[in-house]
Amino acid sequence: MKPILTKSDYNTIKELIVNTPSHLITKEISLLAKEIELAKKVPDSKIEPQVLRLNSNFEVQDVASGKLLNFQLTLPKHADLAAKKLSVFSPLGVALIGFQEGMEIEWALPGGLKKLKILKVNAPVYS
Question: pLDDT tens for residues 8-25?
Answer without folding.
Answer: 999 999 999 999 999 999
